[in-house]
Amino acid sequence: MSPTPMIHVALLPSSGMGHLTPFLRLASLLLQHQCHVTLITPQPTVTKAEEDFISKFHSSFPQVNKVQFHLLPFHDNAAATTNTSTDPFYQQFASIRSSSRLLSPLLASLSPPLSSFIYDMTLISPILPIAESLCVPHYILFTSSATMFSFFSYFPSVAASTLFSEVDVVEIPGVSSIPRSLIPPLLLIPNSIFGNIFMEDSPKLKKLHGVLINTFEGLEENVLEALNNGKVVKELPPIYGIGPFLPCEFEKNGSVTPLNWLDDQPSSSVVYVSFRSRTAMGRDQIKEIGEGLVRSGYKFLCVVKDKKVDRDEEEGLDEVLGFELVKRIKEKGLVVKEWVDQSEILSHKSVGGFVSHCGWNSVVEAAWFGVPILGWPQIGDQKINAEVVSKGGWGVWKKEWGWLGECVVKGEDIGEAIKEMMTNESIGIKAAQVKEVARKGMSVGGGSIVALQALKELWKKKR
User: Which of 8, 25, 196, 334 has its CA 20 to 30 A from that of 353?
Assistant: First the structure.
C-alpha cells in the first residue's frame, strides 16, 4: 500500500496584526490536522509586534517551512504612484500587491509540490494569475466576518450604480440591510485604496476554489447559508466557516503583570478595554475613557495606544493621561501601554466584560471565552462586526458614538455603557451560549471541523 501523499499548504498573509494573527492560527490548525505548512511572510513588517509574532511562531513550530517575501521599496514601485495614502499599513497593502510578481519563483521552488495555496483577502487580483499557474486549489482567507464578506462580494453591484452616493441602505439579499452609516468610510471615498481593491477584486471571487472565514455556524449560520446557496451572489465558490481559530501557546508574551493583578480580583468583576493594534486614539478621548472607567465603579484592565505604529510609542502614561487621572486610575484598575496577550486576559475568570473596537479577531476570541462585549467600532469593517454582536444579543453597541475621531465620547456616557454591559443578565446568558456553540463547532463532528475535513479531502484528490 502506497503512503498517503502529504498535504502541503502555503499561506500568504498581508499587513498588520489583524491579518497576520488569523493566518498564524490557521497554520497551527492545519498542523494539528497533519498538513505540511509553508508560511510566506512579506518583509519588512510594518510593526515590531508583527516581527516578534512571526519569530515566536517559527520558534514554536520549527517544522513550518519559512519563506520571506522581500517587497519592493514602496517609493520605488507602482504602488507609490497609485496610492496616495500616508497610512503605513495601507502602503504595505499596496506594496504587497505591486511586488506580487516576485512570488512566482518562490512558489515554484517549494517542495513537496503544493496541494493548496491560501492568500490574504486583499491580494486577489495580483495573486490570482500566479495561483492559477500553480494548477492547485487556491483560496483566500477572509479576515473579517461572513457578514462583511457578504458585503464585499455584493459591493460591486451597488457601487456600479450612479446613485451609490445617494444610497442610504444597502440591501444584501438573504443577509441583512447595511445602513450607509455602517459602511467602511474608505469605501465612500472615490479612488481610495480599499474602494479600488473592492471594485477590482470582488468580481474575481468566482475564480477562487473557495473562501475560508474565521467564523462558525452558531455565530453567523444564516449568513453562511445565504452565501453558499447563491442568495447573495450567484456562482460564488464554497464559503467555509472553519473558526473559531484558537489562540496559540506561542502568543503568550511572557509578561505576568496583568495576570498577577487579575488573579487578585473577584470572578467576572473586571472590565477589559482594548482597541488592539490598528487604533490610535487622541489624547482627549483616551482621558475620557479613563474617566469613564473610574465612573463605572468597576475594576478594569485598560490597554492604551496613542500611536498607530508601535515603534513610535515613547511617552509614558503620565504624559498620555495626566498625573491626576493616572493617580485615580491606579486606585481602581491597571493601565498598560505594552502589547498584551488578549486571549490570556479574556480567558481569566475575573474578566466579566470587554470594551472592544470589534475587530473580527477580538470578536471571535470573546465568543470563544463567552465574554460580553461593549462595541465601540473605530474604522473599517468594525461597525458591521459590531452589528453581528448586537444582533446576536451578547453585546452592547452605542451607534451614536460614531467612527474614530468624529466626536469625543464623554466619560459619563462611557461609564453608563459599561454598567449596562456588566449588569444586563440576558447579555451574559447569551455570551455563555455563544461560548458553548463555538466549542461545539471545534469538537469532533462540529461544523467547523467537518468543513476543514472536507477541504483536506479535496486537497488529497488534487495530489
Answer: 25
Measured CA to CA in angstroms, residue 103 lies from 98, 106, 391 at distances of 11, 5, 41
Question: From the CB of residue 422, how many other CB atoms can be counted at a distance below 10 Å?
Answer: 21
209 is catalytic: no
In sequence order, what are the residues at sequence separation of 6 or more whose Cβ sits closer than 8 angstroms to the Cβ of residue 340?
A: 253, 255, 258, 274, 303
Residues 14-34: what's their mean pLDDT? 94
Winning range, highest mean pLDDT, from 16-20, 79-83, 278-282 = 16-20
* CATH no. of 8-246+442-461: 3.40.50.2000
> Are the C-beta atoms of residues 370 and 432 closer than 8 Å to each other?
yes
Please give the CATH topology (third level) of the domain spanning 255-438.
Answer: Rossmann fold (3.40.50)
Domains 8-246+442-461 and 255-438 share a fold: yes
- Check: CB of residue 391 under 8 Å from CB of residue 385: no
Q: Where are the alpha helices (DSSP H) in 87-192?
A: 88-98, 103-108, 124-133, 146-159
Is the distance from CB of 310 to CB of 48 less than 8 angstroms?
yes
* Rounded mean pLDDT, 75-90: 63
226-262 tens-digit pLDDT: 999 999 999 999 999 999 999 998 887 654 568 889 9
Distance of CA 187 to the CA centre of its chain: 18
- Domain coordinates of the chain in residue numbers? 8-246+442-461, 255-438
Exactly one of 19, 138, 209, 357 is catalytic; name it. 19
91 three-class SS: helix
What does the DSSP assignment read for 35-48? -EEEEEEEES-SSH
Q: Which of 120, 201, 310, 381 is catalytic?
A: 120
Q: Is 120 a catalytic residue?
A: yes
**CA 101 from centre of chain:** 26
